[in-house]
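Troubleshooting entry. The earlier prediction with nicotinamide-adenine-dinucleotide gave an output that would not parse, so I re-checked the input for stray whitespace and re-submitted. Clean input:
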Amino acid sequence: MRVLVTGGAGYIGSHTAKVLARAGFEPIVLDNLSTGHRWAVKWGPLVEGDLGDSALIRELIKSHRIQAVVHFAGFAYVGESMQRPRQYFRNNVTYTLRLLDAMTDTRVKHIVFSSSCATYGTPASVPICEEHIQTPINPYGESKRMVERILAWYGEAYGLRWTALRYFNAAGADPDGELGEHHSPETHLIPLAMQAALGEKPALEIYGTDYPTPDGTAVRDYTHVMDLAEAHVAALRRMLKSQENAAINLGTGSGHSVRQVVAAVERVSGRRVPVREVQRRPGDPPELVADPAKARELLGWKPRHSSLENIVQTAWNWLISRKPTMGGVDPARRKVDPLREAPSHATAA
Ligand SMILES: NC(=O)c1ccc[n+]([C@@H]2O[C@H](COP(=O)([O-])OP(=O)(O)OC[C@H]3O[C@@H](n4cnc5c(N)ncnc54)[C@H](O)[C@@H]3O)[C@@H](O)[C@H]2O)c1
């Protein structure tokens, strides 16, 4: 089965393309490489182009005989969305509409959509189940919620079959070392902590140490990117059998604080992570943890890779082995404090 993977050169999309190929699907990647990478597309062709280009999408659906879509393409920085809502609504909503119209017109019926826990806003209670009210507090979360609503109406009117997967915090890297996270600028905690451990940035900023959590720092549900990828395959298989559309949380059900993550990075890397404690960021909830019961029930999905230790270990292996052509730092140029040099067991990737 040929599957169009929009945003398949990005972090989660590239890992999913790998898992799709392993499961017997043929991934065809569409990506404009705005934040994605050519080197990350290895399990099928890359069509370099923009989601907003309706003629291109229709052409590629026909020429590649696409039968289903997994839709990752979009902008994903919460802070940036506050400054540039226009770009976020255009890329995440308007262009998704064009994709859905092309699918409807070419009779492609199945789509798995990358939604987000950002659609919940500040939760009234944790763990968060899918019935929790969705009141996003930034344009990014709003754009994801809008697409969820559009999917529901396209399902009603045109018979579109859809699954919206609401990811919590994606983290970790392919255990085979072929893929990993490379965002620029990097905003995710684990790679930032590692960059601080390597001396590539002076310190990791901890936003808020006075939250009502056990150690005062914010708690998040970190889910390994390979577990997320496997959930997409399960969602696709389920949709091909069942008529039921669904929005499903993808998280582990366990949270880790910023300090726990920092401690894990120090254990795995054998280096100290210099930190700087600063004010809370407006709109950052104290705790975001998923209730994963629905994913277990509907998809038979149980995270296998998502222990904090494994997430950090795979991310570390990726970061230190990544070639300069893949955004890695040339080891000769990496600033290393000899007092913080890692023991050899920690750097063996
Ligand atoms: N990373 C997370 O923790 C997380 C959490 C919740 C939801 N999500 C969602 O998952 C999806 C993937 O996230 P990611 O972390 O892999 O981000 P990413 O930036 O690595 O991947 C997004 C990909 O989409 C491509 N893209 C963007 N706009 C495009 C367009 N108009 N046309 C063609 N390609 C386009 C980019 O080049 C990139 O390859 C996003 O939709 C994001 O909102 C991510």
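This one parsed fine. The first strand starts at residue 2 and ends at 6.
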